[in-house]
Each structure stands twice: as C-alpha cells, then as structure tokens.
Amino acid sequence: MKLTGAEIFIECLKREGVKTLFALPGGVVLKIFDMLHQQKDVEVILTRHEQGAGHMAEGYAKATGKAGVCLVTSGPGMTNVITALADAYMDSVPVVCFSGQVSTSLIGNDAFQEADNIGLSRPCTKYNFLVKDVNDLAATIKEAFYIATTGRPGPVLVDIPKDVSMAKADFTYPNSVSIRGYNPTVEGNKWQIKQAAEAIMKAKKPILYVGGGVVFSGASQELIELAEMTQIPVDMTLMGLGAFPGEHPLSMGMLGMHGTYQANMAMHYSDLVIAIGARFDDRVTGKVSEFCPHAKVIHVDIDPTSIRKNIHVDIPIVGDCRTVLRELNQILRATVNGEQKDLRKPWWDQIRDWQQAHPLTYHQEKEGPIKPQQVVKRLYELTKDRDPIVATDVGQHQMWAAQYFKLAKPNRWLTSGGLGTMGFGFPAAMGAQAAFRDRLVLCIAGDGSIQMNMQEMATAVVNKLPVKIIILNNGFHGMVRQWQDLFYEGRYASSYLDTTPDFVKLADAYGAVGLRVKKVGDLDAVLKEALATDKPVIVDVPTYPYENCYPMIPAGGCNHEMILEDPPELKMKQSGGTKVTPEDKDTVLTA
Amino acid sequence: MEHIISVTVENKFGVLSRVAGLFSGRGFNIESLSVAPTLDPSMSQMTIVTSGDERIIEQIVKQLNKLIDVIKVVDLNETEFVSRETAIIKVHTKDVDRAEALRIVDIFRANVIDSTPTTYTIEVSGDPKKIEAIINLLQPLGIKELVRTGRVAVAREPVRQAAVQARKVARE
Fold first, then answer.
1. In the structure, what pLDDT confidence band is assigned to residue B172 with cuts at 50, 70 and 90?
2. Can you give the CATH number for the domain in which B127 is found?
3. A107-124: per-residue pLDDT in tens?
C-alpha cells in the first residue's frame, strides 16, 4: 500500500522510537501536521517559537541520551531554529530537525516563506538532507537518526518540500545504514591504550579531565572505576558535570574560567593530563602556551579533529570513551597495586592544601541581601534526594549552579556550553520534563536570560510540564556587569536591565504559579512551596546585584593565576560612599 | 608550506559547498580547487591546493575526513606526486608579434586552439612554474584573457609495487 510522505514521516518516527515531537506548524508542513493530528503514537508539543522547539529537543536528548526531534516550517520557522541547531552542534547533542520547504518546483524562485534551509544549516549541523523524491524519504530519515546519534553526536536537518509530504510511495524502512564516507572509530587503538596505562602507572601528579563525551557515551561507571582504582582526582568541564559524582572525595569540581581553585591548580601542576571526551576549549585552557606546562597529555575522543586542535597531545586515542575506558580499566586492574598510592601521596597532600586554602566562598549575612550562591546551595540541599534534572541559562547564575549544585549522576545537567545560548534553560528543562513526567526538573535562570524564551511558559502550562524556574534576579546581565566592573572601569554599558517584568504576575498571567523570596529567611520556605507545587512555577529571587563569580581566570589568562575575590577598589566601591545601585545608573555613566 | 590534498567525495548536490564552507568557516586557505567526476560516476575527485603549518594541515585533513560526503583524503605531500595545470591564454597579436607568439608556443609545447587576425588563443599544460614562465613571456605581447584550471595531481606509483604488478601481468 502506498503512503503519503507525511504518513511515511510518522511511520519512520515510530520505528525510531520517537514518543515526543516539539513542533510549530506553517503552510508547507500542514500535511504532516494533519497526519500527526490523526494518530496517537507520537505526542506533539506545540511550542510558541521554533527556537523553543529546538532547545526542547536538546533538553530531551541530553536527559534521555536519545535523539530529540523537532519539526518547523519553512522560511522563518527554519531561521528561528538555527540558534538551537548551532547550540546542539557545539555541544554535540543528537537532534533531528525536520524543516518544511516550498514545493520542489518552486525552490529557488523566492517563493513565499522560502529560505535556503540547506545553506543556512550547513555550518551548524553535522549533516543535512534535502529530500527531493518521496521514494527517498524513509531511507533519508533512517540515515538522519543514524548520523545524529552515532560517532560524535550532533544535529541533523531533514528538509522536506511540501509536494514530497503530499506525494505517495511504497513504505519500506531500511534495517541498517551504510554510508561509505562515515565510519566512526569506536574501538581505541590497543597499543595506544597500553601506552596510556603505562603513563598512568608512572605518573606522580595525574589528573583526569573529563567532558561531555563521558556523559554521551554512558561511561560514568567506567570513569568512577578508573578514578577509584588509580586514586586520580577528577576535574569536570561544564559539559561533563554529572559524569562523576560531585560529592565524591576524588571530585575536584569544575575546572576552567570559573572552575574551583583546586581543579585549576591541579591541572596546571599535573604531570599527566588524562582528557576523556573533552575538547580543550579556550574556557578551559586559558592561555594555550602556558597550559599544563609540566604535563604529558593523553586524549581520548571519538572525534579525531578534537585531538591536537588546540594543544599538543602525547598519547592520542580515537574511540568511544566507554569502550576505551573499559579496555584501559582491564589493563590497569591487572597492574595497579598499592605503590601508586604512596607515589601520589605528596600530590594528594598538595591538592588537599589547595582545597583548604581556597574553597568556594561567599558571605551571606543573616539580614542582608540574598546572595545568589546561597539560593543555589539551598536549592541543592533541598532537592538532592529527589535526583533532580537541572537546566540553566548562560551567565553568572550558570556558573554558580555549576559550582554549588553537585550532581551525582550524568544526564541531569542541561546547560549551553559551547555556544553560550541565553534562553536555553527553560525550554531545555521542558524537553527533559516531557521525557520524564514524574521527575523533578529545575531551571536556574537569570532575569536577563529567562526573558529570551519566556513565551514558552504557555507551552509549559498547556502541556502540563511542571518545571520549577528559579530566577536569580539581580537586575543586570550579571556576567556582563562583572566584566565591566573588572575590565571596563565599572561603566555599565547596556548591562543594567532597568526594568524587568514582575515575574510573579507574569507567571500568574500565563496560568502558572509565581512566588517571590522577599528576604533570606524566607528562602527555604518559598523553595519548599515551589517544589511541592505540581504546576510550572517561577520563583523570583531578588539577589544582591553586585555579587561576582569567583574564582575567575580572565580570558586568555593562565590557569594558576585566578582572581579569587573582588579587587580592593571594587570592594570599596560596593561598600563605601560610592556604592552603585541601579538607581544611580546615570551617575555611573557620567562618572 | 603548500600542500596538495586529493579528496574523493560523493558526486552529489551540495558537496562542493560543504568543502568550500569548511575552508572558509575555519579560516583555512584555498589556493586552487578543481573538481570533476571519477571513473565511477557516483564519486568526484577534488584536488585542493592549500597552505599552512603542520598543525593546520593535520586539521584540514581531519576536518575533511569528518565530512560525511568525503570518502577519502590523501595529503599528496606525504608521498611523491605529479601535478599539472592547464591555462588558456588569449593574446593580442599584431603583424610581427604573430611569429613571436608561435615561437613561444613552440618552445613551451603549447597549442594554438583558436585564431583570429588579431589574436591567438593558446593552451598550455604543465607544472605551475611552466605556466608562470609562458605567461611572463606572452605578457609583453598583451594578454587579453587568462584562465587557469588550478592544479590536478596524482601520487606516483611506488616503483616496487609497479614492478610486482608488471610481473603479474606478464604471468597472466
């Protein structure tokens, strides 16, 4: 029996096990929506903006480890989803995005709502397809899911012209895919793995530097075994949080620009860096020429281009993190003995010294303004038993969440790392909530970034996605303000938001629940009330506006040269007579 | 340093833009790029002349390999190779110059492929130095138009392997 392109599309989604589709209709995809309307296997979540659909697919993918799927229309639908695709590309998130296209006969004619979807998405997708013949549709969709989820995962776009969704063809779904130019290396080179094991045995000051690759390959157990067996401290990248338990005694926390003191010091002074599924991003390396000056580097990554892109690698291992770690652990199990512990005792003494010298600190006065760190810390303590999924936007609140919310397991952390996309958190949290209806999903946001996808509150209310949004409301684009305070002599160019909506009323207007923490003493009670609500909630927490996020390595700085607190002149400005408040904005600008 | 990279790709729509986009997006150089189908019509052969230090060339090769439509990448500088380029040069020729132009064509084993009373169109193949040389000699006559194909290149067959193959053929 022949099926229309739209029916084939739905059949393919079913075969791929897709339960949820984040979508927004338009002229050229109406046939597909019409067929979706007449079936029950795939749930359609109608978003209010295509960017939201893209980030929801990302959140779904990060939480489940499976491909997230979204469907948008041609022209503006496509251009709106580009940010989410670029975000997924940077952070290696498996997303399959379907876009509508004008009929094949009209392509290139500047038709209504036409855009060159293939050209637009080429630099921000792992691969993209234009389906010109309905007979190719099923095989193309199979390939799209295969490419998105294998190797280094990433977003794939399938562009479906209107006439292709209407035309009919016989439906057969291929069982397997073979693409001659695409064969990701999964098994690591055995000789190289042996070299790595030998280097690990000999190292006096080794450090594990783990990233999102560990999360995506499901290698957490293997990582824990490796770290415990060899007693090597673990630094996590922003994307790698959760790959290793945050409260584990071997965990150093996050490294990089706003990483912990011990994580960055251990990196700088180590003699062996074991990088697993991380890519030596500039937020981690700081000044490349002075990065880990004493260390040999082992780099495990499934993407050969990540290796030796930014820094020199001594032992490169191309392969899947989990497969490689299993092999490595097998070798080490036979060779590790008590000697390593003795060998590394001075290293651990040093690390404990660093930990004690400069732990993460902030000062919360009992009656004073609420410190953002306090909010994250209490939120963590109140929810950790419920194994929550935590999403964030981008900025100061994201870094505080990364520092104080110590995730125990992988796939609980939804954040935008590479692209740094403000507005990511809320829709991503909704995507995860759609996958796990019964779980607790939190979104820690800033008052600036939450407004970038606020419209999705309607989606959350209608689809009963009870995400708990905690807004650390400092009235500023906080990270921008921090840089202006540190590097631009406190001139707050366009970082002060001047007026933000009343988030409590806004939540109410959408049919969600809005709560506000008025003083620090109320924090726990309000958070508990929010957590006990079965609807989407916004908790507006006005926080101290001038809190800065430390430690901080200035861009291009060296990893062991961290700024640990506000420089004296800044402290004076904030405590003394020249205290700056948002009301004084004009004075600040003219000063 | 200049490198010649030979890339076998799927012969389908959009592949050239993926390769070109990779170079422009990552700030790699392309000095020349030529592309045409291979014996197998489902594949095309690209020859890319690029430049960069060892690390950049390594990244170019890896990034090309990462493209899903790329089937094979060979950095020809890692082996012996032969390369050729063709140029078609249209020169102004007045009375005396016509004989001079023909002499130059003769010296370079080039061909005249079109002629009018006031112009010759000359085709020449060779390595880039040879092309540069003939252009330099023809320039005083007045070059009206010049098109170059960009280089194509192929690895030299290793001598030992060639010998083995020859023996095999002889036996058969």
1. low
2. 3.30.70.1150
3. 999 999 999 999 999 999
**Has residue B127 been placed in a domain?**
yes
Instruction: For residue A148, give the chain B residue with the closest CA.
Output: B68
State the pLDDT confidence band at A556, using cuts at 50, 70 and 90. Answer: confident
Residues of A with CB under 8 A from a CB of B: 118-119, 122-123, 126-127, 130, 147, 179-182, 303-305, 308-309
Same domain as A341, residue A260: yes
Quick check: A181 and B13 CB within 8 A?
Answer: no
Q: What angle do CA A573, A579, A585 make, to 5 degrees?
A: 115
| Active-site residue set of A | 50, 112-113, 162, 479
Query: What distance in Å separates residue A545's CA from the closest CA in chain B?
Result: 39
Cα A4 to Cα A335: distance, rounded to the nearest angstrom? 60
Pair A336, A417 in one domain: no
Q: Round to whole Å and give the CA distance between B112 and B128.
A: 19
What is the average per-residue pLDDT within B72-97?
93
**Which of A179, A182, A309 is closest, CB to CB, to B59?**
A309
β-pairing, A468-473 vs A537-542, is parallel
Contact A211, A276 (CB under 8 A): yes
Range of the domain at A213: 190-357
Chain A contact probe: residue of B8, B16, B66 with most A CBs at under 10 A:
B66
Q: Is the Cβ pair A308, B58 closer than 8 Å?
A: yes
Q: Could you tell me what percent of chain A has a pLDDT over 70?
A: 97
Q: Token digits for A479?
A: 């990270």
Asked if the model's pLDDT at residue B156 lies above 50, the reply is: yes
- Interface predicted TM-score of the whole assembly (ipTM), two decimals: 0.90
Look at B59 and A127 and tell me if their CB atoms are within 8 Å: no
* Per-residue pLDDT at A364: 95
Nearest residue, CB atoms, B69 vs list A123, A181, A303? A181
Average pLDDT of chain A to the nearest whole number: 95
Would you say residue A396 has pLDDT above 60?
A: yes
Of B149, B150, B4, B7, nearest to B81 (Cα)? B4
Residue A421 in tokens: 């996309």
